[in-house]
Design goal:
The protein is α/β, with parallel strands linked by helices. It contains 13 helices and eleven strands. 43% of the residues lie in helices and 14% in strands.
Length: 360
C-alpha cells in the first residue's frame, strides 16, 4: 500500500519523446489499481495533458471553473497568488475570497488532471511566465504543491523538455525524476547532457532514465550506468502513438505491447523506490509470440501492410496444398509449380518488409 504522497517529475532532454502519453498511461494504470493520482500539466506552452481535458469535456475551450486556479496562474504571479478571481466558467457568485479558491482539478478517467491554462487556446507571454531564477522557480512549484489537496498517493509533474531554472527546481522538489528519451543519437546526447546537469545540481536526488519509442529489438542496456538506473525500454507502436487522444485509444491500449512494456517499467520503478503498487496483470500475445509481435509493431504502416499482404498470399497458397484432392494439369502444365512460386514470393515479401525496417 502507498503510505505517503509521492511526487514524480517526468522530464526529457528534447521534445517529442512521448513523455505525456507515457505519464497518462501510467496514471491510468495506477488509478485502475485504486491509487489516487494527479497529473500536473507543468508544460504550460505545449499543454498536451490539458488538450486531453479539452476533448474529454466535449471540446470545451474553457477547461476550468471560475475562481479555480490553473498552473499558469502560479507562473504569472510567481507563486504569490492575489485575491481576485481568475478566468473560467461562470459561477453564481461574482467574487470568491482568496481563502476559498482552489486549484482547478478535473477528473479524467481514473485519475485527476491539473490543467496548465483556463482556456485551451489561451495565449501566454513567455517573458511574463518563465521564472528568472532557481529561487523563483522553486517558490512557484512549492506554492503549486502546497495548494494541492493532501489525499493523493502520486502526483506526476509533466514537465517541459530541456533544462532551465524550472526543470532544476522541479527535480529538486520532487521525490525523483524520470528522464524519457528516444533511441536515436540526438535524444541520447540531450538526455546525457540533462542528466549530467541535474546531477551537478544535486547528486543525492534519485534520477532514472528509460527508452521510449524503441524501434530495434537488438539494443542492450546496462541496468545501472554512472549511478543512473535504467528502467527499461518501451517499443515503438504506430497504432498507439497515432490513436492517442482519440475515442478508441483507451479501449485498445491495454491490449498492446506498449501497455505491457509501460507496466514493466513501472514495476521496476516501484520495486526500486518501494512505491507500494506492483501491477500484476499479465498480457498474452494474440500472435503467440511477444517477440514476433514486437517486431511487427516496429514496422511503419506501409511496411506492415506489405508484411500482412505477403503473409496472406503465402498462407492462401499453403491452404491450397493442404486441401487439394489431386494434382490438376491445365494444358499439360502443373499449376502446383506456379502456386508454389506465388507462395514463395509472398513469403519473400514479408521477410523483405522486416529487412527494410532493420536497415533504417
Amino acid at each position: 500500500m502507498v503510505n505517503k504522497r509521492t511526487v514524480i517529475n517526468v522530464i526529457s532532454g528534447k521534445g517529442g519523446t512521448g513523455k505525456t502519453l507515457l505519464t497518462a498511461v501510467i496514471a491510468e494504470m495506477l488509478g485502475n489499481e485504486g491509487a489516487r493520482v494527479l497529473v500536473v500539466d507543468l508544460d504550460i506552452f505545449v499543454r498536451g495533458l490539458t488538450a486531453l481535458l479539452y476533448f474529454h469535456k466535449n471540446e470545451s475551450l474553457v477547461v476550468t471553473e471560475k475562481h479555480e486556479i490553473p498552473v499558469s496562474s502560479f507562473f504569472k504571479y510567481k507563486g504569490s497568488l492575489p485575491s481576485h478571481s481568475y478566468p473560467g466558467k461562470k459561477s453564481n457568485s461574482s467574487t470568491t475570497p482568496s481563502a476559498h479558491r482552489k486549484v482547478s482539478i478535473s477528473r479524467y478517467r481514473s485519475f485527476d488532471v491539473l490543467p496548465s491554462v483556463a482556456y485551451v487556446n489561451q495565449l501566454l507571454d513567455f517573458r511574463d511566465m518563465m521564472p528568472c531564477s532557481l529561487e523563483e522557480a522553486s517558490r512557484i512549484i512549492s506554492s503549486l504543491l502546497e495548494n494541492i489537496p493532501n489525499h493523493y498517493d502520486f502526483i506526476f509533474l509533466d514537465s517541459r523538455a530541456g533544462y532551465d531554472e524550472l526543470i532544476a527546481a522541479s527535480h529538486e522538489i520532487s521525490d525523483f525524476s524520470i528522464c524519457v528519451e528516444e533511441d536515436d543519437d540526438i535524444s541520447m546526447i540531450t538526455t546525457d547532457n540533462l542528466i549530467e546537469q541535474l546531477r551537478s545540481d544535486n547528486k543525492s536526488k534519485n534520477l532514472f532514465r528509460l527508452k521510449n519509442k524503441v524501434r530495434s529489438d537488438k539494443q542492450t542496456f546496462s541496468p545501472v550506468s554512472n549511478g543512473i538506473t535504467f528502467l527499461g525500454s518501451i517499443p515503438f507502436d504506430t497504432d498507439v502513438l497515432n490513436s492517442f487522444g482519440t475515442k478508441g485509444f483507451w479501449a485498445d491500449i491495454n491490449k498492446s505491447i506498449y501497455y505491457e512494456a509501460v507496466k514493466n517499467v513501472w514495476n521496476t520503478l516501484s520495486k526500486k523506490m518501494s512505491l507500494g503498487i506492483v501491477l500484476q496483470e499479465q498480457r498474452i500475445s494474440p500472435l503467440g509470440s511477444g517477440k514476433f509481435e514486437k517486431k511487427l509493431s516496429l514496422l511503419s504502416i506501409n511496411k506492415r501492410i506489405l508484411f500482412l499482404y505477403g503473409s496472406f498470399i503465402s498462407g492462401f497458397c499453403l491452404l491450397y496444398f493442404i486441401f487439394r484432392n489431386e494434382t490438376l494439369y491445365v494444358n499439360g502444365f502443373n499449376p502446383d509449380i506456379g502456386i508454389l512460386l506465388i507462395s514463395l514470393s509472398g513469403l519473400l515479401l514479408s521477410v523483405f518488409s522486416i529487412f527494410l525496417n532493420n536497415r533504417r
